[in-house]
Amino acid sequence: MNGERQSVERDGYPILANGFRPFFFLVGVYGAVALLLWLAIQVDSISAPGHWPGATWHGHEMLFGYAPAVLAGFLLTAVPNWIGVPPVRSAPLAALVVLWLAGRAAVALAGHLPVLLVTIIDCAFLPALMLLLLPPLIAHRKWRNIIFVVPLIALTLSNLALHFSVAGEIDVLPRDAFIVATGLLALFITVMGGRIIPSFTANVLRGRGEEPGLRNYAPLNFLAIGLLAAMVVVDAVAPLSYVGAALSLLAACAGVARLSGWRSRRIWRNPLLWILHGAYLTLAIGLALKGISALTEALPLDVGLHMLTIGAIGLMTYGVMTRVVLGHTGRTLKLRPSILTAYFFLLAALILRLIAPFLPDHLYNGDIHLSGGLWSAAFVLFLIVYAPMLWRARPDGKRG
Asked: What is the CATH number of domain 2-391?
């Protein structure tokens, strides 16, 4: 034990002891602040940065700011566990954190910096993350896990396309970059959700003395991933096409089929689990809504995209963070009541945002502001509960 405590001291600040610590803290801060800034932009209290339209800035910061920070925190923690090597920590981790912060600052100062400089700084984060993740994966021949690099590259290219679109350099709508980025993040959830949700569920059921009895068929998993990957490719070349709509609907069906084998009805007493199951359900529903919106104008695309972003991405990232912090700081997997409240805040924020396009004009802004306020409140609660855990050393004296 003394040796472990000395190793913790040599690692320096606890916040830099593992990738999830600084990035999940920053996600908590930015998840709250970015939405409040967007609401302020909507009512003209502040202006969007530079040449960025307000809605485009909001979408960019959530898909290319918030989401990559969650990915970094998760992958920098999970990859070392997969291959049994020490995590990235201290100076290299601090440098990556600074790069993410530089990206947020560059976009915020877009009106005062050259467009190319803003683009380079903002788009450098994911390649830098890949440079930290790839060497141990290659050294240990973990070819199956290297596949995560492909969507990271694609997400970087989507970010580049969005920057050039906003600058008027290419004939691509920001909406199209958002559709592709949302699809790529949905692909991450499909892959990782298929790994962690059945595993966590089986562990909890065994802990109760129950036989898990989960059905997790490899062909169905490959089908779900393949359909979603194909949808992203089609959306990249022909957004809102009939082919993309068909693939989106088929991917939704595959998602429901996968979820049906994960025994969701047996885990509703465990909030740390049902938030993940619920997030995966919103993924399937969001894909279905996205597909339908490409086939008829009766359903706004906005509804499907927000089901995927607030629902699938928001609920899954929040649920994973609240579990990972507990598990990787040596604490019992027991949820605080305030975080359970935050889960319901996020669900309410989702419902309010989904109904917004169907409300009368005089109710629209109030609905959007209430939705955004609930989202921000959920992340404030996250910080109140989890920031002390992220900034302090593990109570058991172990590293990480």
From this structure: 1.20.210.10
303 CB burial (10 A radius; 0-12, 13-18, 19+): buried
Give me the percent of the chain exceeding a pLDDT of 70: 97
Which three-class secondary structure state does DSSP give residue 168?
A: coil
pLDDT by residue (tens digit) across 95-110?
999 999 999 999 999 9
Both tokens assigned to 301: 């695309």
Query: Over the stretch 261-270, which tens digit does the pLDDT of each residue have?
Result: 998 989 899 9
Asked whether the CA dihedral 365, 367, 372, 373 is positive or negative, the reply is: positive
Q: What is the DSSP letter of 12?
A: -
Q: Residue 344 has which token pair? A: 């319901």
Task: Report domain extents, the chain.
Answer: 2-391
The DSSP call for residue 142 is -
Model pTM score? 0.95
With vertex at residue 364, the alpha carbon angle to CA 359 and CA 368, rounded to the nearest 5 degrees, is 120
